Give the backbone structure.
Amino acid sequence: MNIILLGAPGAGKGTQASRIEQKYSLVHISTGDIFRANIKGGTPIGKVAKSYIDAGKLVPDEVTCEIVKDRLASPDIKGGYMLDGFPRNLFQAAELDKFAKVDLCLNLEVDTSLLMDRICGRRVCSCGESYHVSTLNGATTCAKCGKELYQRADDNPETVGARLETYEKQTAPLIDYYAKQGKLKTVVCGNKTPDEVFAAVCEILD
Ligand code: AP5
Ligand code: MG
């Protein structure tokens, strides 16, 4: 099964991806994580991506599509994968349809008013786990692997505002795109905890 995780910044794509990966053994492919690894490694892709990510804008399609196409050519994805953060506009969705088969688009619907606090309060670990300060009880290390937690460079109010705007203009139209293909399933997250959202996700995936 190949799925897309769709949702605004802070909707919980990464949080659900780690649970889905464990239960369903789908390979988690996050374009945001790939860009951040490239920035950390000082690669040419990282140098291009950084200015766009810092501004809350999309990294150019030709760079992003090539990265995903390459990743999906790797044999480890044969048992199924989930794309987190790709596609992010109609052009990328049309490109993806040319080189991959999508079975389901899982749309995490969250009230926009919750997102700023969620993202600005997020602390992440290099192992991929993410937390919120409100539930860390002062802890500064990862409960899973013990490494020091940190805040993403783009998790500040100004950049988050731009990311939310980019989502509304460029990414939200994908909801219609996948609905028309008959592949859309929406999880209305409301005030559900991550585990409650995951239970709703499992009902769909099972
Ligand atoms: P990316 O890394 O994909 O960031 P994003 O889409 O902005 O999404 P986030 O990772 O911020 O949120 P999330 O939905 O994963 O939420 P999380 O689970 O962490 O992209 C970053 C940048 O890279 C983009 O801005 C762009 O520049 C570039 N980029 C990436 N892909 C691209 C593409 N395809 N094309 C062009 N450019 C691209 O949760 C957030 C917080 O909420 C956490 O603190 C978590 O603990 C908490 N939380 C989660 N679920 C719940 C819940 N149910 N209740 C309460 N709190 C919750
Ligand atoms: Mg994420």
Summary: The mean pLDDT is 96. The first strand starts at residue 2 and ends at 7.
